[in-house]
TrEMBL record:
The keyword Flavoprotein does not apply. Residues 21-148 form the Nudix hydrolase domain. Gene3D superfamilies: Nucleoside Triphosphate Pyrophosphohydrolase. InterPro entries: NUDIX_hydrolase-like_dom_sf, NUDIX_hydrolase_dom. The keyword Magnesium does not apply. GO terms for molecular function: hydrolase activity. Keywords: Hydrolase. Its cofactor is Mg(2+). This is NUDIX domain-containing protein.
Amino acid sequence: MTRRQALLMRGAHFVWRFTRGMTLGVRGAAIDAENRVCLVRHTYMDGWHLPGGGVEPGETALEAIDREFREEAEIVLDPGAAPALHGFYFNRRASRRDHVVLYVARAFTVRAEKRPDREIAAARFFPLDALPPDTTPATRARLAEITDGLPPAIDW
């Protein structure tokens, strides 16, 4: 993360300290039949990440991951096949108030190729055994938990 990105994130968390108290986010591992996972590259942060974002007031975590998959990767979850809850993490690197819920989705469709926008520079599927070199350490750790059957860590 560049210094500018770190300052922007610190500023956002400073504002959220007074407006939200605790922050809750979701991330999703969308794994297709070919054992590939969808990763996104943000315009404001380095590396490849699992799609996700904040849970909005009045929204459930499941509703949030459904929305984030659509917004960030053009992924539509299959009705009646809710993603599996994998873990609930403390994201102390972001702030002392940030928590992340991770879901694993295996029943979905990709409605179109994701076009770059203000937030997402790219969204692509990668083989789980051939992730891009700049996949973030947290993303690699979460995917290892999923593929190796490891229990979720405490920290993101």
